[in-house]
Structures are given as C-alpha cells and as structure tokens.
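Checklist before submission:
- one chain only
- standard amino acids only
- sequence pasted in full

Submission:
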Amino acid sequence: MVVTSRILLNPEFRIIAFCGTARRHILVRRITGELARKGKRVLLISDEDQKLPVKGSVVLGKQLPILVNQISKEFACQRILIAGKQLRNNIVEGFNWQSLEFISQALPADYLLIDLNAFPKSQAVLPSWAQRGFWDQLVYCVDIDDWKAQNQLSEDFQSATRHLFFQDWPALLFFNGIDVTARENLAISFSRELHQKGIRHIALGNLSQNIIRPLFLPQTLQ
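Returned file contents:
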C-alpha cells in the first residue's frame, strides 16, 4: 500500500481524519482504494455535504444505532461504504460532531476515514478542534503554493495550524504539489522551520503522480 503506508504514522491506527485544501479528497480516495484492494472494509463519513461518490455504496440514516447496524450488514458484500444522514439532489448530507463521534466509537468497519470541512482559520476556533478530536491520527493536507501564500498573509492562520500538531492525537502535515525542484526546496525549507517549532511528522508529494515521500524529522533534514 504505497500511499497508505507512507501516510499512517502507526499501522495499528484505524480512525483517520483528513482536513485542509480540497485536494485532500484525492488522498482519501487513494487510501480508500488501497485498503479495499487489501480486502479491508472502509467507511467514509464527513461533517459536510458531499456529492455522490464515484465508487462505493451509500448508506443513509438519521437514527445512528440503526444506521450503524445497517452499515455492518452492508459490509457483508461491500468493501467501501459512504454514510450520510440523507440524500438531497445527489448530495449526501453529512453528520454533526456528536454523530461522527458516535460512529467512530462503534467503528463498524476495519477503517474509518473522516473528511473534515472544519478548516482552522484562527486560534479563536481551535479549542473545539482540540476538544473533539476522537481519531487516531489527523492528516493535514495543503498545497505548497497555498502554504506559501498563507504564511505570507496570515499570522493567525500560521498559529492555528501549528497548534493542530500539539494535541493528544498525532498529526501529519502533507505538502502536495511538489512537482519541480523549486517547490521541493520550498517545502523542505518550510519543514525545517516547522521542525524548529516542534512539528515532527511531515510528508512531501504529488498526488497527481502518486508520489509521497515521508520526512521523519529531524533525521532527514539535518
């Protein structure tokens, strides 16, 4: 599992949350596909409304115990399931935080992938993230060009982002869009700076080319 093994910080982790730029959806799809090909049951849930997926069956329900039971039954003949509250105009309605947590505690699958639309824009909204983190690992995806612009424009954004990596759950920062030497050098430069601030788990790559290179700081950046 080329992508999965380079993103998961511990092979025992089963509940993984993803946030960041829109291209995180590509990463989620790659990991989902790899796990399914290995015979694993993968459930995808979100806190936002999403379009009907290209792959996977959808299970809907507002009563969570019944929904979890239905999910378990569907996995008898499916490897990938997407759960939502209801379907409206080809849009799968997402769950609130309490519902996400309930499903994660039930864990009716081998792996639970949680797509989070909540994007930290300032320290003012950060405490809810820290208090409600019920996953094994967070993966924070960002395009290297976006990171460059945000670092130049927003000190609040930088501060909130850094604090995501100092919670009880481990987090990995993934720099996407590394397609030329200049961008790779920029990502490594940012990684050195972030390492000095205590962020340990960083990976570089290009999802379009299915390339991911983990940086296990400080060994690889000394």
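Reviewer check: Residues 217-222 have pLDDT under 50 and may be disordered.
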